[in-house]
Write a structure and sequence with these properties.
The structure is a single chain. With 108 residues, this protein is of the alpha/beta class. It has a single domain, classed as Uridine Diphospho-n-acetylenolpyruvylglucosamine Reductase, domain 2 (2-Layer Sandwich). The chain has two helices and six strands; from the N terminus they run E-E-H-E-E-E-E-H. The longest helix is centred in the middle third of the chain and has 13 residues. The protein is flat, with a radius of gyration of 15 Å.
């Protein structure tokens, strides 16, 4: 099954990328497709919705800790959520995107 993403996302889609590079345990075989979302939540949503519309299985990988990935082929699309945005508001409220590192946030 082939995955077709619209521009500008298409050029950042990786094929048969070993997931071991993205996990703390350095385990994980190649994903059929790998996409690293960095820009915005809208980018993450667009890529996942496009894959779902094409009946492509989707898995989301965060920072790669506390997870063991099979060394065999991982079918479908693996999305790494690296969207890192913060919004400090009044009254000590901070809104943070789900791909943000807690360690980095604590230093801000």
């Amino acid at each position: 099954m082939a995955l077709t993403l619209p521009e500008p996302y298409r050029q950042r889609l990786l094929l048969h990328e070993p997931l071991a590079k993205y996990t703390a345990a350095r385990l994980g075989g190649p994903a059929d497709y790998l996409y690293i979302a960095r820009e915005s939540i809208d980018e993450l949503v667009a890529v996942v919705q496009t894959a779902w519309a094409q009946a492509m299985p989707v898995r989301v990988l965060g920072g790669g800790a506390n997870v063991l990935v099979n060394d065999m082929r991982v079918r479908g699309l693996v999305v790494i959520n690296s969207v890192s945005q913060t919004d400090f508001q009044a009254d000590h409220i901070c809104e943070v995107t789900s791909g943000h590192s807690l360690t980095v946030l604590a230093r801000k």
